[in-house]
Structures are given as C-alpha cells and as structure tokens.
Amino acid sequence: MRKIIVVCNSGLGTSIMIRMNVEALLKEFGLKAWVEHTDVTSMEAHDADLIIGSSYILDSLDSISGIEMIGLEDLIDRQYLKKMLTESTTFQLWVG
C-alpha cells in the first residue's frame, strides 16, 4: 500500500493537522494510502513513498534516496496543499 509520512519537529501538532488535510484530499481524489505523522528524527524509520512537512524542516535534511519530499510554505491552506500534491511526481503516478 502507498505510504505518506507527514513530519514536524515534535510529531504532534503540525503533522497531525497536515495529516488530516492529506487524508481529506486523498478521499477527494478517490485514492487510498496509509498516512502517518511523526517527528523529524523518526521519519527514516518509516518506509514511505512520499514525505510531507514544512519546507523549513525538509530543506534542512538530507534527501532520502528514492523518496520524494514535499516542503510546504503554508501549513494551513488546504488548497495550497492540494496544489503541491498535484504537482508531485509521486502523486501524479498514483492518480494515473
């Protein structure tokens, strides 16, 4: 199954909010994926197909080979998140 990891510093507030928006958008697109939220230090322990988090956090990390990362400038706007997802190479493959 497809797996999306949503990361933030603590793995609590921001990542949960983004996770809920990602899950709503997946439903809107009729896609199924496992979505988890975690703190940035634990994200590599998850076997993800796509990683989403604030651009501030993701820009400070080394790329993980073979996994696309979506860095968000706006963490609240669902339409912005939708735009970023639809521009994602990984997400485009899922939509077909």
The first-to-last residue Cα distance is: 16 Å
The stretches of 5 or more residues where confidence is low (pLDDT under 50) are: none
Major beta sheet, strand line-up: 2-1-3-4
What global shape is seen? globular
GO molecular function: protein-N(PI)-phosphohistidine-sugar phosphotransferase activity
Domain PTS EIIB type-2: 2-93
Keywords: Transferase
Protein name: PTS EIIB type-2 domain-containing protein
Summarize the helices and strands and which ones pair or pack:
Elements: E1 3-8, H1 13-29, E2 34-39, E3 50-54, H2 55-59, E4 68-72, H3 78-87, H4 89-95
Parallel strand pairs: 1-2, 1-3, 3-4
GO molecular function: protein-N(PI)-phosphohistidine-sugar phosphotransferase activity
Organism: Paenibacillus glacialis
GO biological process, one term: phosphoenolpyruvate-dependent sugar phosphotransferase system
What does this structure look like?
With 96 residues, this protein is an alpha/beta fold. The protein has a single domain, classed as Response regulator (Rossmann fold). Helix 2 links the parallel strand 3 and strand 4. The model has no long low-confidence stretch (mean pLDDT 91). Keywords: Transferase. One of its GO terms (biological process) is phosphoenolpyruvate-dependent sugar phosphotransferase system. One of its GO terms (molecular function) is protein-N(PI)-phosphohistidine-sugar phosphotransferase activity. InterPro entries: PTS_EIIB-like_sf, PTS_EIIB_2, PTS_EIIB_2/3.
Could you give a short description of this structure?
By secondary structure, this protein is of the alpha/beta class. It has four helices and four strands, in the order E-H-E-E-H-E-H-H. It starts with a strand and ends with a helix.
